[in-house]
Design a protein that fits this description.
- By secondary structure, this protein is of the alpha+beta class.
- The chain folds into 2 domains: 141 residues, Kinesin (3-Layer(aba) Sandwich), CATH 3.40.850.10; 123 residues, Up-down Bundle (Methane Monooxygenase Hydroxylase, Chain G, domain 1), CATH 1.20.58.980.
- It is 27% helix and 18% strand.
- Helix 4 packs across helix 5.
- The radius of gyration is 20 Å and the shape is globular.
- The two termini are 14 Å apart.
Length: 292
């Protein structure tokens, strides 16, 4: 039996996808990319897809890096993938740790222009994926799978910021489901334009709350055994659609506070965790492919 592993990391912020491995030394030495950094795209469901490069090449001796567009797609096997995302082969835990630490350093440099780095990180989601292919060298039959580590945005931070606009009469009524205080701001409603928060930071935190609210909607729909699951209502849930289906095993760790002033956020988090426990994903199955 022979096994191979690849590692990828992406960040979701403000409904955009960032390839965190772009610009790392190992990524730059890969034939299929030239060290592109800070690639971002809008939610692919939006009418327009906008791609920008956060950093231009500072060395005139190097050719300009090729642009890479990240798009969420469904491949021929029915799996949700990010087209254009860098995936680097690794052979040990040390390789993975080295890539992770380097990606964090590049992310820190990218965020130097942010006015409030803590606010940015609190409203971002990070998805680390290790893809595994195991092959029987005799028969040529293999199995494929992936291990994902997902760090969700801080729900307490998003809730405290978005609560500033709850009382505005121009905004839609907050959506509350099953006791979970899930607020969804209608950012596409022209009538709410004058009522939006002025700073980008406040808007970003509301976007994080939207992502978590859509995740809450997905969990609620699965608890109700609904035939329609709103995975595509946000970039985060679209990316997690495979993880939340029956062919996967999921472990969610809810982080709560014991401080009295955090009782509201702690209660909501525990309610959400209780709802997640009621979701039935079914039995995980092997994904067998012929590599002969």
């Amino acid at each position: 039996m022979y096994s191979s592993f690849t590692f990828s990391v992406l960040e979701v912020h403000d409904e955009k996808i960032y390839d965190m491995l772009s610009g790392t030394n190992m990524a730059s030495s890969t034939e299929n990319n030239d060290g592109v950094r800070g690639v971002e795209v809008e939610n692919p469901l939006s009418p327009e897809i906008k791609q920008t490069s956060k950093e231009k090449s500072k060395s005139s001796s190097k050719p300009a890096p090729k642009s890479s567009k990240l798009e969420i797609r469904t491949n021929y096997d029915g799996d949700t993938v990010v087209e254009g995302l860098i995936s680097i082969p690794v052979t040990s835990a040390q390789d993975t740790k080295k890539l992770w630490n380097e990606s964090l350093q590049l992310r820190k440099k990218r965020l130097q222009d942010e006015e409030d780095i803590d606010a940015y990180t609190a409203s971002s989601h990070i998805i680390m994926t290790i893809n595994v292919i195991s092959t029987n060298v005799t028969t040529g039959v293999g199995t494929v799978g992936k291990l994902q580590f997902i760090v969700l945005a801080g729900s307490s931070a998003a809730s405290s910021k978005c609560s500033l606009v709850k009382s505005s009469k121009d905004l839609p009524t907050p959506k509350i489901m099953g006791g979970d205080n899930s607020v969804i701001s209608d950012t596409t409603n022209p009538a709410s334009t004058n009522s939006r928060l002025a700073s980008d930071t406040e808007q970003d935190w509301c976007f994080a709350n939207k992502s978590l609210s859509v995740l809450n909607d997905v969990i609620y729909a699965k608890c109700q055994y609904s035939q329609i699951i709103p995975y595509r209502n946000s970039t985060l849930t679209h990316l997690l659609s495979d993880t939340l289906e029956g062919a996967a095993k999921v472990l969610m760790i809810a982080c709560v506070s014991s401080d009295a002033e955090d009782i509201h956020e702690t209660t909501n988090t525990l309610r959400f965790a209780s709802r997640v426990r009621r979701v039935v994903l079914g039995k995980a199955i092997k994904h067998i492919v012929s590599l002969a």
